[in-house]
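User: two proteins, same treatment. go.

Assistant:
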Amino acid sequence: MCYPTESTEWPDTIPKPIIRLLDHFFTLVDTNADTVGEALAKEIFTPDGKFTATYGSFEGYDAILKSRQGAWQYVRSRHHEVRQVFISDRNGLELVLFGKVEIETLHEKRSIHEFLVRVDFAHSETFDPRIRRYQILLPVPRGQPSILE
């Protein structure tokens, strides 16, 4: 497994394909490459998926495909680490993730932020999981209401 989830505390009932998908997701968003948007749209999200990041909300294949444009405008490096995962529904298809992200800006300023994320997975008979909704709860994304409102 890659670094984003190697020290994560997982509930015993989380299937390995979901763990691998989340690890792949965080590895992708920590990668500065032109192909990341396409990989997110094709490999991570459902065709009608919704991806809410700190810099905007993207719904559907075409929007997710373009979601990483500008994501590295001020950032030199980004490193997510998922610390703990909680199951939020009976079927294990809705998870809440707690972690931290370390960011270095182009001006060499480093900062560490905690994050709280809700992830909903689409039900799959073949269990090739895909994310239906990825929603950052904290820090509250720009233009989104507080989770307490």
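Protein 2:
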Amino acid sequence: NTDNLIDQDYPFRVDNDGFILPRNNYDNPDHKIVFLGGSTTECMYVTENNRFPYLTGQLIEEKTNKQINSYNMGGSGNSSIHSLDILLNKIMPMKPDIVVIMHAANDYAILAYDHTYWPVGTPRSELITINDYFPKIPKETFIWHLKGLFKTIYPNIYQKIFLLKERIIHPQAQKQIKPYDEWEGRRQYIKDRDFDFMQKEFRWALQMLVISSKTHDILPILMTQANRFKENPDKFIIESMAPILSAGISYQTFKKEYDTFNEIVREVARTNEIPLIDLAKLVPQEKEYMYDVMHYNDTGSKFVAKIISEQLVDILANLK
């Protein structure tokens, strides 16, 4: 759901290691920086060269004349636990200087709907069985198995590809296409959430990311998540929030709880004496920068790349 996304092609490529392209690939860079997060880090609907994890590295190079490898490891739907898995099993062997972490919305969603970071048989399950790979319709063909596997592991990307296909094949029927809702059938569980528990779990997950990074001589930097959740939201925001609000939570309550998650990010950074880039305060809550409630468009991505690069230049200059 968007109120200003430019209708154009947005190439989306990854390398053999799963990092989003483009990226510099120096053999011996002066610094390596990894960005971890969800779809707001992934920046699928941003022009390739304007995705902030890549553009940040380019801007740092311009300001310092140093060679920078910056890696975009954001993934649609990823929570802090997904990023912890990626950090431990993929990033640490790379020995980066800095890991920049941005999480809030996906952690809120999984804890609000599933009440745990480790649900079983739900869209955000950490563990899936071989049966989850296959579509519910018993079509014994390789393509259906492959489709089922992709849908299980990457539900949000699957939805975006599905909508693109429908737009091409049935352009006249766009208004009739029902968007895929990965939380369909679970929305009502938000009424039973334990927000005190949710805060505790999110704080713990961030702390695990911070400690794991520090113990391997990687500087963790936390970022809050920019958004368009104003005190008095416009019609588009309310309509975009309809699936959540219809499940039994008011906009005011959701905003308060989501803002609390961003505040936990600030708290964890402060407690651990690590850098914080407070995008939630620095990015205007306007559609000029985000094409929906929180995902950057090209303007927004370039805006935050400038903010992040300016702060990282100072941090890198003082890095031991």
